[in-house]
Design brief:
Length: about 120
Amino acid sequence: MLSSDTALARRTISRQWPRIRALLDGGQPAPLGLVTVASPNPLVLGRNHQVLAYGYALDGPEVTLAVYDPNSGPDDSVVIRFSTAGGFGFASTVNIGRPVRGFFLTRYAPAEPPAG
């Protein structure tokens, strides 16, 4: 039986990564919700995080996802790394102090800022 972290990582890579990659390949950034906690307590949901993926690099099955992290500001060294070939898990330099367990594409619609 898979651990919940392994199952979440597999779902992230098999279901979310293709959607994220398609957006990035189309020139669109991808807003991501990062899953960092596992708890039935809704009060800990605020410990999760959001970032914006804006690019990626492939090295065989290894993926390096470039992300904008609002906790880090403009820093091109912030990434999430994973393999599509197994050994499911994530390494990241996102400034949150907790490991990334998985991520998902979130809804986003741009809005014009108010005038003035």
